[in-house]
Amino acid sequence: MHYLSKKLGKTKLFLIGSGIHIVGMIVILIAGTITPIIIAGAFISAFGLGLKQTIYFSIQADPVDYGEWKTGINAAGTLSAVNGFIGKCAQAIAGGLSGALLAAGGYVANASQTSEAILAIK
Q1: Which of 14, 16, 116, 122 is the most buried (most CB within 10 A)?
Q2: What does the pLDDT read at residue 40?
Q3: Mutual orientation of helices 35-71 and 76-104 as an angle, nearest 10°?
């Protein structure tokens, strides 16, 4: 990872990881019911997400270091607390949206699913 971030730059590496993640998600979406393609899409998506998440925490430290250099104030704790709070809020919203999408798609537990429900599941 260190070699790639030195070679490409952190921002570019984050964007590449995001792009790979999106491509994997699109593969899953268009795979239909073809399990091997869904699994391949999941691997592609996971690779991109891993790349993106790994470099994210490296990028997060840069503004703290810059701010400390510029002002002399070390705000690492504040940034970590705010980042954790925002992450938890985003997870709560994502969970709520997932439930809403399943309801909108007509998902019924322990039943054969409609094509709209399968799309919502994906």
Answers
A1: 14
A2: 97
A3: 150
Distance between CA 32 and CA 30 in Å, rounded?
6
Q: What is the DSSP letter of 111?
A: S
Give per-residue pLDDT as tens, 101-110.
Answer: 999 999 988 8
- pLDDT at position 38 is 94
Rounded Cα distance, 16 and 10, in Å: 10
State how far the Cα of 88 lies from the Cα of 30, in Å rounded to an integer. Answer: 30
User: Model-level pTM?
Assistant: 0.69
Q: What percent of the chain has pLDDT over 70?
A: 99
CA distance 79 to 81: 5
Phi, psi of 107 (to 5 degrees): -65, 135
Asked whether the beta carbons of 41 and 24 are under 8 A apart, the reply is: yes
What gap in Å lies between CA 71 and CA 15, rounded to an integer?
A: 30
Which single residue is written with the structure tokens 């019924």? 108
List C-alpha distances in Å: 73 to 76, 81, 85: 9, 16, 21
